[in-house]
Amino acid sequence: MATYASKNSLIIFTILLMSFLATVESQQFSRKLSQRSFGLRKEKLSHFRFYFHDIVAGPNATAIRIVEATRTNRTAATGFGDITMIDNPLTMGPERTSKLVGRAQGMYTSASLNEMGLLMAMNYVFVEGKYNGSSLSILGRNPVMSTVREMPIVGGSGLFRFARGYAEARTHTFNMNNGDAVVEFNLYVLHY
Measured between alpha carbons, how far is 105 from 123 in angstroms, rounded to an integer? Predict the structure, then answer.
């Protein structure tokens, strides 16, 4: 009788152990998915060109300094530590009245002690055409005194899911009196 009970206990224990292992195995951390299950087809390269209006002066400013760091002899020239929040218009042409294609929403901060170098963290939210409602995310360094600056595109939403690429910035105009700037952006984006 003792052997029969031992066998039953061993069988029950084995069944419980197997069901525990099956449960643990089915709760895995990651799994492979097919691109087609997300509606992803062939990847394409797109080019976008628009103008970024950084309006810091006047009653209709779209770039507002939200943090002004304490100035020292070392930080006075670069504004190191300042943080500016933006909701800047993106237009087809360099004129403020040009057709609106989107908005740059996010922030930039002065991140260099030795030069005018900004850390840009923003989304380009498109409001025009087939990309209406889609966005691209930029996160990178912008050495504003350089003629051409390159920043990475690190992702996107909507039609830009899984996007990657880079943005090139060139200052079109800069108003020395009030600090307003218009910057030409060329984006090269790999997306599905």
Answer: 5
